Amino acid sequence: MSEIDYNKPRGWRHGATWTYLIMLLASAVALVVSFVLSAETLELARNPGQKLSCDVNAVMSCSTVAESWQAEIVKFAGLSYPNAFFGIAAESVFVTIAVIGLARIAVPRWFAICTWLGGLAALAYSYWLTSQSLFVINALCPWCLALMFSTTIQFMALSHATAVVQELPVNRDGVRKYYRLNIDLMIDIVWLVALVVIILVKDGPMLFS
């Protein structure tokens, strides 16, 4: 008779269906937003100086962000590539990984680790772009904010699935307790609220002017 592992998180919130479903929904939103941003980038390229539909005021302005150098940081052979194009590629991969997780298909540990590292890289890139919008460009794009929040939730769900479903890292007693006691849920809520507060403190009055 096998010994019961009381440290292992249990319940529907810690299962593959829930964790990967949240990841799938967040990744799908991020993918759709990336398509919208790509379309607006092409529209701006065809009609330089044109105001976009999400240009609300001086602060909430997609065109201001899209025309900054931060919107096209990858350059090769004399050409620059909009960030949104890479968003389409990356989020398509995350959607596929979420579907694999929902299908309960076993993946090697190295694949799960690389997936989590990829999610971390996507989150760091998104936060860098958001910080540039807030503190350097001094303009915000509604679609970019939607992408940042969906990427954040995607990473939260991916981390949850990696720790509980994929059972990584191997020496994970502390990680198990973190999820078993639902500390992750409290941290995630504080995390999202903190992002909202930062945006409102920096540009709150101007967002609704």
Automatic annotation (TrEMBL):
GO terms for molecular function: oxidoreductase activity; quinone binding. Residues 16-162 form the Vitamin K epoxide reductase domain. It is a multi-pass membrane protein. It is found in: Membrane. The chain crosses the membrane at residues 20-39, 84-103, 110-128, 134-158, 179-201. It comes from the Bacteria. Keywords: Disulfide bond, Membrane, Oxidoreductase, Quinone, Redox-active center, Transmembrane, Transmembrane helix. One of its GO terms (cellular component) is membrane. Belongs to the VKOR family. This is Membrane protein.
